[in-house]
Amino acid sequence: MSPHKISYPLFEKHLDNGLHVIVNPDHNVPVVAINLWYDVGSADETPDRTGFAHLFEHLMFQGSAHVKSGDHIGLAQAAGGSVNGTTSYDRTNFFEAVPTSALRRMLWMEADRLGTLLGVVDQESLDNQREVVKEEKRQRYDNVPYGEAWHKLFSLVFPGDHPYAHPTIGSMEHLEAATLSDVHTFFRAHYRASRLVLTLAGDITPDQGVRLVEQYFGHLPRLPGRVRPQVEALPPHKGIPRSEVSAAVPRDAVYIGWRLPKTGDPDLEALVLATSVLGDGITSRLHQALVRTELAEGAGAFTMALARGNSIGFVSARCWEGIEPQALESVIIEAIQQFLDDGPSAEEHDRAQAQFAREWLSELASLEHRADRFGQAATVYGSPNWVNERLDKILALTTADVTAAARRWLDPANRAVLTYRRNESQ
Amino acid sequence: MSFANCPRIGRQPAWSFPTATEQILDNGLRVWAFHLPGQYVISATMSLDLPLTSEPRAFEGIANIAAHSLDEGTMAHPGSSFTQTLENTGAVIGAGVSQLATQVGIDVPVTRFRDALPLLAEAIRTPCLADGDVHRHIGLRRAEISQMMANSAQLAAALVPGAVFADTFRSSRSTGGTMSSLEAFGADDVRDFHAANYSPAGSTLVFSGDLAGLDPMALVEHIFGDWADPGTAHHHESPTGAAPRRRLIGRPGAVQADIRIAAPAIDRKDPRWPAYLVACSVLGGTFQSRLNTELRERRGFTYGVYMSSTQQRHSGYSAVGGSFRTEVVPEAVTEALRLLDVAAKPFTKAEVRRAIQYLTRTAPLRYATAEGVSHQGVILASLGLDWRQVDESSALIADVSADEATAAFTEIWPKEPAVLVVGDPALAAKLGVEAEPTPQL
What we know:
The complex is a heterodimer. By secondary structure, chain A is an alpha+beta fold. In chain A, about 45% of the residues lie in helices and about 20% in strands. In chain A, the strands form 2 sheets. In chain A, strands 1-2-6-3-5-4 form a 6-stranded mixed sheet, with helices on both faces. In chain A, helix 9 packs across helix 15. The radius of gyration of chain A is 23 Å and the shape is globular. Chain B is built from 16 helices and 12 strands. In chain B, strand 9 and strand 10 form a beta hairpin. The longest helix of chain B is centred in the N-terminal third of the chain and has 20 residues. The model of chain B has no long low-confidence stretch (mean pLDDT about 95). Classes of the chains: A alpha+beta, B alpha+beta. Chains A and B meet through helix 2, strand 5, helix 3, helix 4 and helix 12 of A and helix 2, strand 5, helix 4, helix 9 and strand 10 of B.
């Protein structure tokens, strides 16, 4: 039996100023998810100004011409909404889900900050949010075991001048040096209606949705397009770059990374299934080879879809007490080589597809996550309909597709390896 | 545009918590089925009435090991064949243990629900709990404890129950056991524990999703109807509070410290519960709460500070928590304690109105998915409450006045709560305590 057919109704309009509006009516609950997907992320920063896209995301909550600092979240919460923003390598998203009664106010506030933020943002809010972001960096990365692993793996997989080589959170030194003038330059370069996909998913009609967005965002000017440097696709690694970190961690650990094709390449979806067979759940090959044998306390394999030149794939495993990371790496490589030689069995392939179907349906069950995926799809793939089509495309992949993609991209000879070593003196 | 043009919030749309179809089987198992159109993944969770007071004192952590070993093979599907069969349907299984209950659940596409639910029943009723699997899960739990001890925020959170409840009560100790208690039992004990304590009596199966055309009650009767009650009586304790202490767990060189300020509170049957909930929300439940506004937005001390409450059947506790850079920790503690002195600055009508709006108007969003509805159903079941409680509580919360919120908080929250800091030992003098080494969890 096939999983549920996905066909969310979609309506689109491009306003004169370039803003792309998407409406997905869903009348099951009296709530609307609003998602603003701005096509700017830490990959748009220069290597000497890192952390800026994210710091800027914080400043977007510090008030605009008609909204006091903190009120964007405060008013949304008092109206029964949940609200936040996040920054990643390729994008910055701002989102709120509110009862339909608060939709107009939220759109008005979003338009106010896009239209008037620069007239309001001042040294005091910059200084305050700089401190908050530094605390976020300490809390999420600096004061956590293995907190830096992700960043270190990225800097091993991508060369120093690559847009993905530096972490989105930035460096303390660059955060410290950020000035108000940088804030203005960044906003002017990247924040504009033509770089925005605004999605409304929930208890609203397409006409209502488009009309409201036109009412609140229609007056914003159409600004010239941005010239973004092309990022060439990097070939797979040669020579296995390695890095070893000595840190106050409870166990040694191994992180192995590969350069994968960028978003839109059909191989990337096949690699979603390949990494699922290798490292998703307790039936996966890595769990069976490492955790059931008490070589590792945990093991997984993942892909992260990225838009500039390459994506990234990785395997991570934490050593069982007393097991050496080299031993772990050998078993991982053996398991991957076996997978490249034989490909997934028919049962493993069907299982990976069934698991993907459930994960995808679960994600889309939430209006907030669904709206976010529509924004991503419109920006990255040119159409929100990618969300409706993705499951069918994944279910159409064959074991041969998965094997071929894995052989092209997950060859152990093309890996980069980061090892964490426990240092008790730290 | 001008601020005068700021659109008003319209009339709150009518909403109520979904209605469950209910049934109680002859063996005592209660079933709540929530039909949610458009939710194509069904979330089905069994909340077993299994308070941790049922664990032998020397074997603490055994309930957690049993729960996490359930999916390692069943009598009908031994070893890995169980999860292979389950995952072939697209389902994922998960288990967790709280002081009140063991919860085991699956998420599965509606099209495979009929195939997957019997497998959930197998895991709960007839797991193998084989020696090797149990042994491995004990090792994994010990590894998890090592990770918790190395993680400042997790360590701080783990020490809260012992800071609020007297150590004679199970509630004061870790749900997952300690390094030493995990050495005390083996697979035989886990199998005995399962046989004696997993029971339909007092347990609730909650499932939510698009149930159109599924006739789930007949299926539930078929796969759980002959599940026998082993007859073991369970006891939900009423823990008393611990004497409040101030502790600093030293972590030399830490760039940040985790702070927890905690105290025993009330359970949900206490008539002051709605007012107390509103009070905690004003103090630390939202972005513009008193604590977050002062410590994050005005002073930039932290990425965020919150106040949360944890409920048991006959008790509860509340804790303020956040991570702060080392140099501001003494000031952050003083300031947080000052903000918690509500008698000195009673809540205003505007603050209470906002908190009530937040607590009541966010309900449609929180319960918009199958996962959200099942999660809430399972929490209520474990507390011995009914799903109708969601709407009933909402109505009570909506009626709380500023005076009632102030009175409830000042009665319940002590003048001297427990203060826990996990951070640089150099803070000892300014905090007025001796730095302790990391305790063995």
